[in-house]
Amino acid sequence: MCVTQITSWGVVYYAFSAPLQITWASGSSVELATAASTAAQLVSAFVGICVGRTIDHQGRTL
What we know:
Elements: H1 2-14, H2 17-26, H3 30-58
């Protein structure tokens, strides 16, 4: 499980450079792409907290 988690998170963070290259090559804003990725991670963090509390409150998985 540990190796799987490390690998999956590594893929998520290091694979982000590919879309940035595409964004840069197409003339779009790299800053906007980076901001969108950051916003998605923040939303995921807050949703994860809410889902975790819901699971803890119900005492079972959804």
